[in-house]
Amino acid sequence: MSTPIPDEARLPELTLRGVVLGALITLLFTASNVYLGLKVGLTFASAIPAAVISMAVLRRVKGANKLENNMVQTQASAAGTLSAIIFVLPGLLMIGYWQGFPFWQTTAICAIGGILGVLYTIPLRRVMVVQSDLPYPEGIAAAEILDVGSRATGNSGGDSDAIASRSNDAAEPGAKEIALGAGVAALFSFAGGGLRLLGESVSVWVSAGRAAFQFSTGFSLALLGAGYLVGIVGGVAMLIGTLIAWGVAVPWLTSITPVEAGQTLSGAGMTLWADKVRFIGAGTIGIAAVWTLATLFKPMVVGIRTSFGAMRGDQGRFREQARTERDLPAGVILALTGVLLILLAVVFGVFLHGAAPSLAAGAFWTLTLGSVLFAGVFGFLIAAACGYMAGLVGSSSSPISGIGIVGIILVSLMLLGFTAISDSLDALDPAVARQLPTALALFVTSVILAVAAISNDNLQDLKTGYLVGATPWRQQVALIIGCLVGALVIPPVLSLLYNAYGFAGAMPREGMDPSQALGAPQASLMTAIVRGVFSHDLEWTMIAIGLALGAVMIAIDALLARRGGSARLPTLAVGIGIYLPPSIIMPLVIGAILGWAVDRRLRRRARQRHRDVETEADRPRRRGVLLASGLIVGESLVGVLLAGVIGLSGAPAPLAVVGDDFAGIAQWLGLAVFVAVCAGFYRRVLAEPHRG
Q1: Residue-level pLDDT at 41
Q2: CA dihedral 673, 676, 682, 687 (to 10 degrees)
């Protein structure tokens, strides 16, 4: 377990060099997360790789210590997490409201939502971090890495020079593992997406009568790494979802739906999946989120009650508290929250005026203040729930997508109720009147999702800080800085990727290759849902099937939990398996199976040597996590860099060295290299340390 810095110790924490380093790491991981999220609908937790990079850099600087490293990883992980806002914002381009990403509006939404997420979770720190036995898996893991990386010998207390002078024996090897994974993934991605020598997926369609079946997998090393981090339980659940979608739903629908003239088997199958089967996944994801919120209602109420008690009580005695107990004062939290809500009203007002300048004053203020009230109140409730979920199952497993679905349905119903009782929109141009509620629903939901994502991450970071002996208020300032830096990074990265690749259903210019468009799956789903609510043609039948399926999965998962053991069936992961295409899901599943195979081999090796399994497996497991993180970072950064090349050249494949006729060979070459990388990953993680 991590050894905390004593309360009486006074070490540099929130330093200028740390803030600058955190900002540089933020650029790296935020760009990676934005690209990965737009491509496949997933983001990765950046706390652990950020901590390793920070230690590798600061270990060469006099006076560096684990509290300073903790501040760097806190700032970087907050900014990386904020990129989850891309699950909604691209929808504004998909409906044609935006033609690009306005810098200041996008930055303001990211910053305000993110900082509100920080402020909402500060009062929950004591009840959910200090006084709770929640596991906080990523938070504890990050604390362990920081502790190993900065462990002092001899004096464990207040001798700051002794503590600060110790460097991390594991930091540089850890950074090397990230660099190795990133290098391999970067080369693979460049050979595929840049030179076009390697295919990015292989897909085979077969028919049985009129039923169509697809067998497909992608070769994304980023997804392979993400699957390794997700683990076998989540991987199997996603595989079950894929089998439900492509082994049951799509074959059944293709067998009963007439094929249009000139339509291929694969085209018919993909159309039915996109128009119908995806909504089964949406229903399953939605009920998973609602069920999670319902199960957390009691602890959420306790947390809220305790937070208000803390604001009235001992948080006021800021200077009298021990260093490791000082949160930002309640007055500062309330003042900042008030300012942010006022700024949010301004942003919503600018957004509404830009959409409908002739909107009546009464309707304008009703929509503006109603949206602010909804975002503020619902955001606070979601912050408590997300913080608890992160502590219970980890940030990576929390159903942020499901919360987004619930949020956008509630916002849409609120706006639908307003339009039903108001005739203010009737005076507008019909096209504006149709588009305005949809655009506003997406805009409001983006704030809620930013609050949810940051809340999901922040208590994890505060748990790390608690374990290493950080000063809470300084860490909370670092979280706010991370949100501000991330908010400045996200808009230009979004614009770069949009102009280079386009999004599914939203291409910036004619003549672009739609097969290279970023799918932005969550944004596409949110857009489809909100459009369906306002046009009254949402696929309610498919959503109902998803809800029923999700209820069955929840019951099975509860039964497995009651029986004990490691076998579980996370409903959210099943819904994701239904919703995302197999070219995305299968690399995740392969990564999860790879992690399971590694863990099984480590356990067998420990038993053969008569050693403790956890002790024997600790170093290889950590190496695997760092390698997997490197795979994600390497591919994502190459994707961003290629986007810049494409944007500058204006050509869809400016670096390609082969023509389209090479695609058949490229897909099998891609498969061969992908398999080789999997084998190399397995061998690398299990490699014995050199003994000299």
Answers
A1: 67
A2: -120
